[in-house]
Amino acid sequence: MRWLAVVPGVLLIVGTGLSLLRLLVVPRASRNLLLAVVGGRVVAPLFRWLAFRRRSWADQERVLAYAGPVALLVLFGTWLSGFYLGFALLLWPIDHLSFAGAVREAGSSVFTLGTATSRRPLATAVDYAAAATGLLAVALEIAYVPTLYGAFNRREVQVTLLQPRAGLPAWGPELLARHQITDMVERLGGLYRDWEVCTADLAESHTNYPVLLFFRSPHPLRSWILAVLAVLDAAALQLALCPSSAPVEARLVLRMGFESLREIADVLKIPYDPDPLPTDPIQLTEAEFAHGLARLTAVGFPLERTAEEAWPHFRAWRVNYEAIAYALARSLTAAPAPWSGPRRAGTGPVRPASFVNRTPAEPAGQVVGQLPES
Question: Is the pLDDT reported for residue 369 higher than 60?
Answer without folding.
Answer: no
